[in-house]
Amino acid sequence: MLDKKHKLIKLTLDVLAPVLGAVVREPPIFIAGMPRSGTTWIVYTLTTAAGIKYFHEPFNPYIFPEAEKYSSKYLQVDDEDKEFAAYCRKVLNPYWSDRMMIKDVHYLIDKKVPWWPGRLMIKDVHSLMALEWIDRHITPVIVIALRHPCGLASSWFQASWKPEKSIKKLLNQPKLIEDYLQPFESLLREAQKDFFTSIGALWGACYYVLLEQKRKNHPNWIVVKHEDLCQEPVEQYRQLFKQLNLHWNRVTDYILDASTTGDSGKYYIPKRISSQEPDKWKKILEPEQIKLIRDFAQPFGIPYYQEYFCSLHLGNSKI
Predict the structure, then answer these.
(1) Tens digits of per-residue pLDDT, 218-239?
(2) What is the DSSP letter of 261?
(3) Do 308 and 150 touch, CB atoms closer than 8 A?
(4) In 103-116, which positions are buried (b, 16+ CB within 10 angstroms) versus exposed (e)?
(5) Are 45 and 256 in contact (CB under 8 A)?
(6) How does DSSP classify residue 294?
């Protein structure tokens, strides 16, 4: 998404960042969230900051087949899982991470001179249930991307993804059920009958676990709503840059303008007319589908999108 001019600016910033002290002793950043919750756009924007060394979805089995047994795995914070720990050490080694899905100048330093200093940023949507363990053992600053359940559902529906498979992974982990999901076990089993009930329950279950962990033990975890970023991109991203101690620059301005004012038409390239994104699902989903999503997400009591969850009668309008 960068033209030659901005690629050169970004490369110069990356090379100079360690010299200028922009990335000295900063903690890693871990971007988490459900697939299609806006994490890729967040990464595209944050990696414009100087000196970022980016690792893309190390627990995605479609990129790294060896990650299959770790994908969606639940770990308690004190679990001693030597295999999981060894895999983390492996994938966070810059000499190994040469199979990125996203190819851009942001990663030139990592690939060509992996020893060059930089601040680590990881984006992963397949390790949500191990986030507390990751917090303890990697000690990153954690950012959780949250998107409206109907916005997420419409994106999954268009991609023909199967949320019921993800629900089965949750239900097949007894410790996860015991620690968090026991009150919702019957709901999760019932939800597997239909795409829209499945995605509603999956959204509720995943964010219930994360937000309960944040509430009880990790008030420092940062939650960003996709809709807020879409509606006020400059203001919201500037706030996020400040929270993460990242430095805004000309490349950030360029990427943010490019990614919010036009539509790439490509599924995995985060270039949209951002002001139109929050309500796009209202033109895609039918009222009955919207109601099914709400009915199976609502029991989890997620403290966001209250206007949607409190709407008792959808009628013919797509609220």
Answers:
(1) 999 999 999 999 999 999 999 9
(2) B
(3) yes
(4) eebbbbbbeeeeeb
(5) yes
(6) H
Q: Look up residue 26 and give its two tokens.
A: 């900063």
Which residue has better confidence, 21 or 232?
Answer: 232
What's phi and psi for 279, nearest 5 deg? -105, 10
Kindly state the tokens that stand for 143: 């950012």
Place of tokens 């690939």: 111
**Host H or E run for residue 119:** strand 119-124
The pTM for the full model equals: 0.86
Instruction: Point out which residues pair with 31 in neighbouring strands.
Output: 123, 143
Alpha helices in 116-232 (DSSP H): 131-138, 149-159, 163-171, 174-176, 185-191, 195-217, 226-231
Q: Which secondary-structure segment (H or E) carries 31? A: strand 29-33
Report residue 231 CA to chain centroid gap.
Answer: 18
Of 199, 188, 64, nearest to 124 (Cα)?
64
